[in-house]
Write a structure and sequence with these properties.
The chain is α/β, with parallel strands linked by helices. It has a single domain (3-217), classed as P-loop containing nucleotide triphosphate hydrolases (Rossmann fold, 3-Layer(aba) Sandwich), CATH 3.40.50. It has helices at 16-29, 44-51, 69-72, 91-98, 111-116, 118-128, 151-164, 178-183, 198-217, and strands spanning 3-8, 34-38, 60-63, 80-85, 102-107, 135-140, 167-168. Strands 3-2-4-1-5-6-7 form a 7-stranded parallel β-sheet, with helices on both faces. α1 runs parallel beside α2 (44-51). The longest helix has 20 residues, at 198-217. It starts with a strand and ends with a helix. The mean pLDDT is 93. Bound molecules: adenosine-5'-diphosphate and magnesium ion.
Length: 219
């Protein structure tokens, strides 16, 4: 069985590439046949693949900038597919979502960012017409450690839930410098050596398990 997850948001800087590259690396470490598809013209996931050491567990990465992802995806024959879907509302964006079983939308816990992510929800609602089995999920990224999420953020998330019914993952990622440092070496925070990566590593592994279980159950 294959699991296909689009990590998508038209809003930039929310952590799509960080999550897609870390998840693909973790799947490869677990011995899953994995492919990372980069549809974002910024090419962050492809740069990560290029930087990745030969000693690390390998996965295939391809950049697709034509609206052909939904046509090509099964031919890759991978167990785990992660699609880094950024940029604007384009045909490529829609093709990537159409190709997926589940869309994972990273949000940062700021009101402005959550508001600007609403465009993404609108696009997904349109795509769902004719693709009702798409599972839509949200996760919070870059939560500042030691702070509680503000009441406003909770309120916004609750309002979104009432309106769209997207599943919000229980686990989230804190803001950890390790994410920036590991990326340049083409390694996930789980693979890179050093105590300073420990918290980020534990947190992303916990989130990964939650996301993959949910994706499997809802396939
Ligand atoms: N949990 C995190 N903690 C710290 N920095 C993060 C985290 N997630 C992402 N970043 C950093 O934030 C920036 C934007 O993340 P990125 O994954 O490139 O977002 P996107 O692909 O949505 O544009 C990058 O510099 C990345 O290293
Ligand atoms: Mg990106």
């Amino acid at each position: 069985m294959s699991i296909k997850i689009a990590v998508a948001n038209v809003k930039g800087g929310v952590g799509k590439s960080t999550i897609a590259t870390n998840f693909a690396s973790i799947s490869a470490m677990k011995g899953k046949k994995t492919i990372l598809i980069d549809t974002d013209t910024q090419g962050s996931s492809m740069a990560y693949r290029e930087a990745r050491s030969d000693a690390a567990a390998q996965f295939q990465a391809v950049a697709i900038h034509t609206p052909t992802v939904h046509k090509d995806i099964d031919a890759f024959n991978a167990e785990h597919v992660f699609i880094d879907v950024g940029g604007r509302d384009t045909k490529v964006f829609r093709s990537a979502i159409l190709a997926s079983d589940m869309v994972l939308i990273p949000l940062t816990p700021s009101q402005f960012d959550i508001w600007s992510s609403e465009d993404t929800f609108t696009i997904i609602e349109e795509i769902k017409i004719g693709h009702e089995d798409l599972t839509s999920t949200l996760m919070l990224n870059m939560v500042i450690s030691g702070t509680n999420l503000s009441d406003e953020v909770h309120q916004i998330l609750n309002d979104f839930y009432d309106k769209y019914k997207y599943h919000l993952f229980k686990n989230h990622l804190f803001h950890r410098v390790g994410f920036k440092e590991s990326i340049s070496q083409g390694l996930s925070v789980v693979e890179i050596k050093g105590d300073k990566f420990k918290k980020a590593s534990d947190e992303i592994l916990t989130l990964y398990e939650e996301v993959m279980s949910y994706a499997t159950e809802n396939k």
